[in-house]
Amino acid sequence: MAKGNGDKAKLSKKDYDEQVAQLRADLVQLQVELQNAPFKVVLIPAGVDAAGRGDAINTLMGWLDPRGVETIAVSDPSDEERERPFMWRFWRDLPTRGRVGIFVGSWYTETLREEARSKKALADLDHELRRIRHFERLLAENGTLVIKVWFHLTKAQQGKRLKELLANEDTAWRVTEEQQRGHRIYDRLARTAEHILGETDRPGAHWDRIDASDARFRNLSFGLTLLRRFREHTSQLAKSPEKAPNKPKRIVALRPDGRERLLALPLDHKLSSKQYEEKREKWLGRLNKAIRRAKQAKRSVVFVFEGQDAAGKGGAIRRLTSAIDARDYRVIPVAKPTAEEKAHHYLWRFWQHIPRDGFTAIFDRSWYGRVLVERIEGFCHPHEWKRAFGEINDFEEQLVHHGSIVVKFWLQVSKEEQLLRFESRQNTPYKQHKINDEDWRNRAQWAAYETAVGDMLALTDTAYAPWNLVPANNKRYARFDVLRTACKQITAALDG
Length: 496
Prior knowledge:
The protein is an alpha/beta fold. It is 53% helix and 12% strand. It has two domains: 6-239, 3-Layer(aba) Sandwich (Rossmann fold), CATH 3.40.50; 256-495, P-loop containing nucleotide triphosphate hydrolases (Rossmann fold, 3-Layer(aba) Sandwich), CATH 3.40.50.300. A five-stranded parallel sheet has the order 2-3-1-4-5, with helices on both faces. It has a five-stranded parallel sheet with strand order 7-8-6-9-10, sandwiched between helices. Helix 1 (13-35) runs parallel beside helix 10 (215-239), helix 11 crosses helix 20 and helix 12 runs parallel beside helix 21 (475-495). It is elongated and about 85 Å long. Residues 10-231, 271-492 form the Polyphosphate kinase-2-related domain. InterPro entries: P-loop_NTPase, PolyP_AMP_Tfrase, PPK2-related.
């Protein structure tokens, strides 16, 4: 942990009052500017026990307009939060664009608390820090201003502060047994804290360290840090404003082997009505058993359905759900993002729907829209969809690391078969709602989609979340293949 700043950490009341008057006006102006800015502010105060972090937060809140601030209190995870990946609750509570979100406790809190209770293996700690770095990088790359502040006290200063609090019956309640134990193992915690700060001090998510030995200096420095970081961020944006993305003239493959794999898929598999009926009941029963096993083992199942328009995703999903208790699953149809969803990172809306342990979520289209339709239509910049491959892999790895079973399907039809289905939809009254101008526009970009799908298959086909390619020219075969593959993959994950 950083050493104290000596005399610099002392501030007279007169100097403090004079500087606070100007700071308060500047902070309110910051909030006015932020309302029209294309980003949000995430403020993460952390530090040594008894450093007065809570007092600093309360003081800052008194200087800000409360209508533009959200405080997110983080305590021990609830049962609902434990039954989802670690980062789920933080994704859920991110502030909206144009606001300041102050995390009273954060994704660092549990890591530091666990270290205070038991000496964490360095490998486990580094895994958590890698996860935190990735999360903060996602926020920063999406334009979020991430401000992290570490309040520092030396061991002697901390001991003095705890002793003063304990000596007064009105403040003794503030000192917990955990804090007293933390003081006894201060040196060990200091080494761990230095490791954490060093490993997570990265571009876009730097740590600012504040000497907390003097309350006035601490509080003023806290507010000034917020102001300074905001001005630096807006200045940088002004120097290099980001232009709206343009629709690309041509889609160029990143990995030609992915498209080759797609084109090599045999689409002539067929299944007669009789064969389908015979096989369906068998595999529905097996899938029902596999899903019930997953629930008993408290393993969630996440299905991802992607495919060309009219490839039969909806029909396959309906057959799949007939094997699952209606109380245990949700189908999440993914359409164009809402205004609220656009104000967040594109993965935000999918984190909202991650199921609890033992339950099933079925995504009818998914986060892969970023590397498919958004890439092809120019809804995002090239640097955004290119980095999305790694972001998606990490997202799915977090799900699997938590215990979720991720089953991904791409349903493939030929161009000729798609045309027949489009025409059938147009000519059948009860199917006409399934076809619109956008479907025909997508069809005109068949080659572009083949290229984008090929890149997706090549760059997101991982050992923990592999792609299952389904020949879908014959609907019965596709539905049977989905049932059989889902059953086998879930069973293998449970047995493994």
